[in-house]
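Q: What residues go here?
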């Protein structure tokens, strides 16, 4: 379904389409058709004749950023258990509160996070969580785009995993893989991880997803000790996924911190994509993903914020900066990830990780998901008339998401003047305040948790 809108030419002193070489265009235009897709990106001198509206911007136009891994409804739990290790954080802080969560709470969390992400220039988010129908409503209300993987777990007292897998399949069979205005919603499968699901469940998810061409979105090797049993039985989590056939699916693995060279070989050979979540991994003390090794192997890599209760920012330009910093510090090589590399990870890299060629770059035929960066900021005080690499460096290293002023999704304005034009942000914040207060459970004590295992001391 494609809504009609007035064709629009955006003209700006700088356009960075995020092609493979991160070309910088000067005095350039982005032409948006009535169907919400890009018709042309070129310098003004090279642009074709245009009869539609024209809007002149004063800064930098970029493609909308793609968040490859998030649980954004968890904004209702933001700040909880922030000093706990992963398993204790899940078992003591998150899962008890999530057991109290209603569909309305998830909708409230998703709506506020959708607003937050759009204000940070994130136009597409790849989610793994519960109550995807309510998430879809919230994303569409804010005007964003999402790939929604319903989470599948096998935990005591929870809905059996088979029922969840069947529901995901039934939903896709009923609506198709993508739906909503401008195909803004895509459904996917979200098996949480190998350590909370039996191999049979992983195999079944893969079979259902392959039949429907759907994305499978899973956590993988986030911490070294979380999946000891799987490693003991199969050698590694990627080896387990290979044994159950899941690597043959359209697969996106989040985190992938603890990978051997052999594991990277398995992912590469199968065409598996990775969502790199550098801030979440650092905050939870999980380690640093081998970004340079994965990129060198040709693995598609995007960037993820992870949930707002584990990061706690939904700021993808911030993740780009952190990813580059960590890659440089772990390799002791300042050329390991350039500013341009980091920007591409947050845009076309994320789209590639999701298996999408219709977002993540300003190219004819893709959706007109765009971000305008305001340059009335100290980060750009050296001017726009600097060499291309300095301009991109100032954007990635100095400016960040605070400079996002305007955002379009499928050519429609969703953020103007750094605020949502669709939703009252303060009301959305108040709704999260009310949900958070209902979800209060006894506070976990970090002193009673062991950092190296799942047992309490
Ligand atoms: Zn996650």
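A:
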């Amino acid at each position: 379904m494609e809504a009609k809108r007035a064709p629009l030419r955006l003209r700006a002193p700088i356009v960075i389409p995020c092609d493979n070489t991160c070309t910088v265009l000067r005095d350039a235009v982005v032409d948006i058709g009535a169907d919400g897709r890009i018709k042309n990106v070129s310098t003004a001198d090279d642009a074709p004749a245009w009869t539609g509206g024209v809007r002149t911007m004063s800064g930098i136009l970029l493609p909308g950023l793609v968040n490859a891994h998030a649980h954004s409804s968890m904004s209702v739990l933001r700040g909880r258990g922030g000093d706990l290790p992963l398993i204790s954080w899940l078992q003591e802080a998150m899962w008890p509160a999530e057991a109290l969560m209603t569909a309305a709470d998830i909708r409230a969390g998703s709506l506020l996070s959708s607003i937050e992400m759009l204000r940070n220039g994130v136009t597409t988010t790849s989610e793994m969580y519960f109550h995807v129908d309510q998430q879809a409503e919230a994303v569409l209300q804010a005007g964003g785009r999402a790939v929604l993987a319903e989470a599948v777990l096998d935990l005591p007292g929870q809905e059996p995993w088979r029922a969840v897998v069947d529901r995901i399949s039934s939903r896709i069979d009923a609506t198709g893989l993508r739906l909503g205005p401008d195909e803004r919603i895509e459904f996917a499968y979200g098996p949480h991880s190998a350590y909370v699901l039996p191999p049979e469940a992983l195999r079944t998810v893969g079979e259902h997803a392959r039949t429907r061409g759907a994305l499978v979105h899973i956590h993988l090797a986030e911490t070294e000790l979380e999946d000891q049993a799987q490693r003991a039985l199969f050698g590694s989590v990627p080896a387990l996924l290979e044994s159950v056939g899941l690597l043959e699916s359209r697969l996106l693995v989040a985190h992938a911190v603890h990978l051997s060279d052999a594991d990277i070989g398995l992912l590469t050979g199968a065409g598996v994509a990775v969502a790199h979540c550098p801030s979440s991994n650092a905050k939870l003390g999980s380690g640093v993903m081998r970004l340079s090794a994965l990129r060198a192997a040709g693995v598609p890599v995007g960037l993820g914020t992870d949930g707002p209760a584990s990061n706690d920012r939904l700021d993808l330009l911030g993740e780009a900066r952190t990813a580059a910093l960590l890659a440089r510090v772990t390799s002791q090589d300042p050329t390991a990830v350039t500013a341009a590399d980091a920007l591409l990870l947050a845009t076309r890299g994320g789209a590639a990780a999701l298996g999408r060629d219709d977002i993540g770059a300003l190219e004819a035929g893709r959706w007109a998901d765009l971000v305008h960066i305001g340059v009335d900021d100290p980060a750009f005080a050296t001017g726009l008339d600097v060499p291309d690499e300095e301009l991109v460096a100032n954007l990635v290293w100095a400016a960040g998401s605070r400079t996002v002023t305007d955002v379009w999704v499928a050519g429609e304005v969703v953020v103007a003047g750094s605020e949502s034009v669709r939703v009252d942000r303060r009301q959305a914040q108040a709704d999260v305040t009310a949900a958070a207060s209902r979800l209060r459970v006894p506070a976990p004590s970090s002193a009673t948790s062991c950092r190296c295992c799942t047992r309490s001391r």
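A: Context that may help when evaluating the design: Residues 69, 71, 219, 254, 306-307 surround zinc ion (CB under 6 Å). Residues 446-457 have pLDDT under 50 and may be disordered.
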